[in-house]
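Milestone 3.1: sequence recovery, worked example.
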């Protein structure tokens, strides 16, 4: 396949409700999209980076810059490309995994559409639908939190994840556990808000029968998570720390994570995400699919990934209406707590280009090969 052009779009998506985590409040999601034009057709990829560098060092401005200055020129300079070859071609650029992942997803979409195969088939999906959980932000009050959780339970979500931070942890967890009953799947995500000084406090979460605690400490400190895992009975699960298969294997070997959150954008692409899944299955470590407030484009790919056999826990693969009144694709609708895995070629849905245009935050940028 020959790459002819790369388009970068930035779309502003209003959220149906603001989403607060330990790193801040989101009221709108700015989503960077990549469209590749090839001699065999087009493909779309969604970048998970946020507006600001607060979940990770990547953000849309940096992603747009590194694609324009390095990643797109490199791919456009190749005689031919394959999705499997994108990672190697871009390896000389250190980091910038979310930017690379978006490009790889777009090339993979073009390639699998041309071949007539779905992402599920490419990744090795073994299920036709996936069980879904929902991530619930920090709320203004316990009452407001319980109201929101009730809505998600009524909608059919199979697992609740509460965002926590110092000052918003034991009380909301106790209240939601009391609301849901002992058997419901409940877990928490701290997004790096604690330190090793909080171990005795975090141990008090052991009373609530949580599925896991996600990323309590700073992403570079895998060792601190190993200390915590030995000190509490709640399973520790890494998110931000896991940026590659090598890091995942190391964190598992060191006892820092007994469950792994897989997000393709964070690890540099869906193909690396599949490799992490495989490494975890080999080691008997359960995995689940994380979420980054994706539009239907990224959501479809996540649902295909979550259909692999090692994804034994419900993911943050929520329905479109958890975040958006109008999605960039046909919406994903929860059916009996599940989302269906698309079966049509590529990521499997048509992009509503009228909305991409209408909600554009700036003019799309088109990159083509320049001869010297
Ligand atoms: C997590 N996601 O698991 C992330 C955090 C997160 C669904 O909890 C813009 C970009 C907003 C990235 C909000 C969920 C975001 C974001 C939250 C990531 O840690
Ligand atoms: Mg997380």
């Amino acid at each position: 396949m020959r790459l002819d052009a790369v388009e970068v779009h930035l779309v502003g998506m209003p959220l149906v409700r603001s989403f607060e985590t330990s790193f801040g409040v989101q009221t709108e999601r700015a989503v960077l999209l990549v469209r590749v034009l090839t001699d065999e057709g087009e493909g779309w990829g969604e970048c998970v980076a946020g507006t600001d560098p607060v979940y990770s060092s990547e953000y849309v401005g940096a992603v747009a810059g590194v694609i324009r200055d390095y990643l797109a020129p490199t791919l456009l300079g190749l005689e031919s490309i394959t999705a499997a070859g994108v990672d190697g071609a871009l390896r000389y650029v250190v980091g910038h995994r979310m930017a690379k992942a978006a490009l790889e997803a777009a090339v993979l979409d073009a390639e699998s559409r041309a071949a007539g195969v779905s992402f599920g088939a490419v990744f090795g999906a073994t299920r036709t639908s996936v069980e879904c959980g929902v991530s619930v932000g920090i709320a203004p009050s316990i009452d407001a939190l319980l109201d929101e959780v009730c809505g998600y339970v009524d909608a059919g979500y199979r697992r609740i994840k509460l965002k926590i931070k110092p000052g918003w942890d034991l009380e909301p967890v106790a209240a939601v556990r009391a609301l849901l009953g002992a058997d419901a799947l409940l877990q928490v995500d701290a997004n790096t808000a604690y330190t090793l000084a909080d171990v005795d406090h975090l141990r008090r979460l052991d009373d609530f029968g949580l599925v896991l605690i996600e990323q309590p400490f700073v992403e570079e400190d895998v060792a601190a998570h190993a200390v915590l895992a030995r000190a509490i009975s709640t399973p520790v699960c890494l998110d931000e720390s896991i940026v590659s298969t090598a890091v995942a294997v190391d964190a598992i070997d060191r006892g820092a994570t007994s469950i792994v959150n897989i997000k393709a954008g964070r690890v540099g692409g869906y193909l690396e995400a599949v490799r992490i899944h495989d490494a975890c299955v080999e080691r008997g470590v359960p995995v689940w699919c994380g979420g980054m407030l994706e539009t239907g484009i990224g959501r479809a790919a996540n649902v295909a990934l979550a259909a692999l056999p090692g994804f034994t826990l419900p993911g943050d693969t929520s329905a479109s209406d958890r975040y958006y009144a109008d999605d960039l694709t046909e919406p994903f609708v929860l059916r009996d707590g599940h989302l269906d895995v698309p079966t049509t070629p590529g990521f499997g849905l048509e992009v509503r280009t009228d909305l991409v245009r209408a909600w554009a935050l700036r003019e799309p940028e088109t990159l083509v090969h320049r001869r010297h």
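The CA atoms of residues 11 and 360 lie 4 Å apart. The mean pLDDT is 97.
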